[in-house]
């Protein structure tokens, strides 16, 4: 397996983990940010770090790009997503939702999404909310 395939496999191993703000326990609870942290640190692609604590609605009350900076300072910004890359979406006033690319054609991601109440893998084009936000999404790669 390639490192990109390893990232996808690790991300998929979190499937159906319930959404839980600030949690990072596979099968028990995770949010979108901690899913990214957990997957990439489990594979040794980044040194372990913990961005917590943060409120569940921080993106509604601030303008600074805390999530974007926290996640992308460990990555290379790329134009086109590849397997295992992170995609960061703008919600509220700033970037505040993250997902991992599991397929490129069609573009499919896995993410912990409060609306679904658990980690789900879905094609971007079937989720109009994500599709609408993809035009302004930022894509980061940890694979050099």
Q: How would you describe this protein?
A:
The chain contains 5 helices and 8 strands. By secondary structure, it is an alpha+beta fold. It has one domain (3-141): Alpha-Beta Complex (endopeptidase fold (from Nostoc punctiforme)). A hairpin with a 2-residue loop joins strand 4 (86-91) and strand 5 (94-104). The protein is globular and about 40 Å long.
- Uncertain runs: none
What's the order of the H and E elements? HEEHHHEEEEEHE
CATH second-level architecture:
Alpha-Beta Complex
| Structural classification | alpha+beta
What is the name of the CATH class? Alpha Beta
- Main β-sheet description: 6 strands, antiparallel
The CATH homologous superfamily is termed: endopeptidase domain like (from Nostoc punctiforme)
- Within the CATH hierarchy, at the fold level, what is the topology? endopeptidase fold (from Nostoc punctiforme)
Terminus-to-terminus distance: 16 Å
Contiguous helical run count: 5
The spatial strand order of the largest sheet comes to 3-8-4-5-6-7
Choose one word for the global shape. Answer: globular
Radius of gyration: 14 Å
What does the average pLDDT come to?
90
Number of domains: 1
How much of the residues is beta strand, in percent?
A: 25-35%
Q: Quick one: how many beta strands?
A: 8
Q: Please estimate the helix content.
A: 25-40%
Helix and strand topology:
Elements: H1 3-12, E1 24-25, E2 29-30, H2 32-42, H3 58-61, H4 66-72, E3 76-78, E4 86-91, E5 94-104, E6 107-113, E7 118-123, H5 128-134, E8 138-141
Antiparallel strand pairs: 1-2, 3-8, 4-5, 4-8, 5-6, 6-7
């Amino acid at each position: 397996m390639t490192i990109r395939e390893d990232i996808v496999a690790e991300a998929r191993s979190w499937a159906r983990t319930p959404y839980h703000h600030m949690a990072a326990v596979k099968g028990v609870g995770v949010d979108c940010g901690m899913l990214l942290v957990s997957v990439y640190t489990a594979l040794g692609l980044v040194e372990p770090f913990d961005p917590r604590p943060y409120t569940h609605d921080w993106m509604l009350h601030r303008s600074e790009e805390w999530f974007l900076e926290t996640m992308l300072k460990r990555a290379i910004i790329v134009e086109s997503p590849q397997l295992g890359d992170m995609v960061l979406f703008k919600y509220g006033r700033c970037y505040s939702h993250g997902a991992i690319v599991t397929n490129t054609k069609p573009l499919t991601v896995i993410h912990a999404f409060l609306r679904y109440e658990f980690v789900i893998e879905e094609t971007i084009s079937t989720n109009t909310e994500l599709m609408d936000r993809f035009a302004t999404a930022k894509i980061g790669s940890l694979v050099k």
